[in-house]
């Protein structure tokens, strides 16, 4: 798979993201229940729900087996993948550059600094 395809695989439009959240919040969810929820939330027809579901299943984010929809990757895994891609593309993969840009002039309290240090220490220790 080409690099560009991997990036696009996890890029969701705003509506796709809201749709995905419905699944993550309710899984396992029957496809019928998903249709009902999408009709309530987005005013979608059944065909629209199935079209978007099929698209996200083809991208390997969800699966629909025996009319039960579940995730292939968790919301946390999805967010992690997207975050890594963002740092890679926007900051040449440099976490220090990302943190410097993110922090800017923002000050963090001692507890936040300790949490960041703990994360780094665990990474260094190989946990």
From TrEMBL:
One of its GO terms (biological process) is negative regulation of DNA-templated transcription. SUPFAM superfamilies: Winged helix' DNA-binding domain. GO terms for molecular function: DNA binding. InterPro entries: BlaI_family, WH-like_DNA-bd_sf, WH_DNA-bd_sf. It holds the Pfam family Penicillinase_R. Keywords: DNA-binding, Transcription, Transcription regulation. Belongs to the BlaI transcriptional regulatory family. This is Predicted transcriptional regulator.
């Amino acid at each position: 798979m080409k690099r560009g395809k991997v990036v696009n695989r996890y890029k969701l439009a705003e509506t796709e993201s809201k749709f995905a959240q419905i699944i993550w919040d309710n899984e396992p969810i029957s496809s019928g229940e998903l249709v009902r929820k999408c009709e309530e939330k987005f005013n979608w027809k059944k065909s629209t729900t199935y079209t978007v579901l099929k698209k996200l299943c083809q991208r390997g984010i969800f699966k629909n087996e025996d009319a039960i929809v579940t995730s292939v990757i968790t919301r946390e895994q999805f967010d992690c993948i997207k975050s890594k891609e963002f740092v890679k593309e926007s900051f040449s993969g440099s976490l220090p550059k990302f943190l410097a840009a993110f922090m800017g002039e923002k000050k963090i309290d001692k507890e936040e600094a300790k949490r960041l240090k703990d994360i780094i220490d665990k990474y260094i220790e190989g946990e």
